[in-house]
Amino acid sequence: xxxxxxxxxxxxxxxRTAILWTLQVLLALMFIVASAAPKFAGEAYAxxxxxxxxxxxxxxxxxxxxxxxxxxxxxVPRLAGLAALGLVGLMIGAGYTQVVVLQNPVFVxxxxxxxxxxxxxxxxxxxxVARLLGR
Length: 135
Fold this sequence. Notes:
Layout: H1 3-41, H2 44-53, H3 57-74, H4 80-101, H5 109-124, H6 126-132
Helix pairs in contact: 1-3, 1-5, 3-4, 4-5
């Protein structure tokens, strides 16, 4: 293989890796800072939403912990794909809750966007997910 062929092959891989890492860091910041932190801090809006859901405030802490774990997991190379997959599931639940439980379909946009972006990371890191699951 010539030096040019090796460079041409590795450039798309480097670009893909850089894009995935950028997306992972941005999603991690979103889930840790903008989503989990207000739940743990007891921000009035977060408390109100979980009161409307009717599952109790303990559920706010559970969701916050899942968002925090997913956000941190996105920053750990070995766990990033699995964390993204978990966040996709969490966003499906959030979307369902917005539409069915809270009957506020306009607010389903955020979980859809975050879920799709997490799905892109999960797909991009599918090889690491397969390794973690022993396949």
